[in-house]
Amino acid sequence: MPNILVIDTSTEACSVALQVESHGFDNQSQPQVYHSYQVAPRQHGELVLPLVDDLLKQAGIKLIDLDVIGYGRGPGAFTGLRICISIVQGLAYGANVPVVGVSTLQAMAQAAYQERGETHVLSAIDARMGEVYWGQYRLESEATGVMQLVGEEVVCAPENVTAQVAQSSNPQVAEVINPIYWSVGSGWQTYSKILSDAAKVSMVIEPEVTFPSAKAMLSLVQYEFERGKAVAAEFAQPVYLRNDVAKKKAEQGKLAK
């Protein structure tokens, strides 16, 4: 079982989580988890490193004992993502360990599954400027316990979101027909009526999962790490989505000329 440190500063929340291997009375390997979560806008830069140091001390390990460092890659606030990437790269270089980036939208869906057992989730983060970061997730399998993206993550006006409803004409297929979607993230608090009307699915809004957390990212980082998806620190990259949209529009403009 890998020792994992995860950092997320992509939104108003600043969170750090640490998973270390421990052994019970039966000498079986099991994870010990330490975590800290604070809603502290504009304080991420001063909070993160002391939080990391505190969790490492609680666990009685050092950076060099880590197997991988995970991070919230976005989407989210530009400044918060840059802070996270720079800190993660510095720590990873110092410890000589690889890194794994995790979607912040996926992390909220993962939290809904871990905390409430929800298997169909609509994640929305308030992206400001009248837009939301949006993603739809479904449980891959009970064996993996990982929420996987359906379609793609986008940034758009809340009235333009869409939900791909699970359907199956084969009764032998273990699909949920017209499932109830659990809706998480700050986008739902800002645009709940507009998003509900646009998604056109049955849903329940979960107010407890407002922002992504590093704790929920631990299992996602482990999943990717065990499948060989970790990369060297210099390849850690944020996912802005809004930049991607601007780039696509610019390219379309060039083609139209």
Average pLDDT, rounded to a whole number, is 90
The CATH H-level homologous superfamily of the largest domain: ATPase, nucleotide binding domain
Q: What is the number of helical segments per DSSP (H or I, 4+ residues)? A: 6
Shape: globular
Look at the helices and sheets and give the structural class: alpha/beta
Strand order of the largest sheet: 3-2-1-4-5
CATH topology of the largest domain: Nucleotidyltransferase, domain 5
**SS strand fraction:** 25-35%
In short:
The protein has 257 residues and is α/β, with parallel strands linked by helices.
Explain this structure.
By secondary structure, this protein is of the alpha/beta class. It has two domains: 4-103 and 211-245, ATPase, nucleotide binding domain (Nucleotidyltransferase, domain 5); 105-205, Nucleotidyltransferase, domain 5. The protein has six helices and ten strands; from the N terminus they run E-E-E-H-E-H-E-H-E-E-E-E-H-E-H-H. The protein has helices at 44-59, 78-95, 104-116, 186-199, 214-226, 242-256; strands at residues 4-8, 13-23, 29-39, 68-74, 99-103, 120-128, 131-139, 147-156, 181-184, 203-205. The chain has a five-stranded mixed sheet, with helices on both faces. Strands 8-7-6-9-10 form a five-stranded mixed sheet. Helix 1 (44-59) packs parallel to helix 2 (78-95) and helix 3 (104-116) crosses helix 5 (214-226). It is globular and about 50 Å long. The relative contact order is 0.19. Mean pLDDT is 90; it is low at 168-175 and 245-257.
Key terms:
Nucleotidyltransferase, domain 5; disordered C terminus; globular; 257 residues; 10 strands; 5-stranded mixed β-sheet; alpha/beta; 35% helix
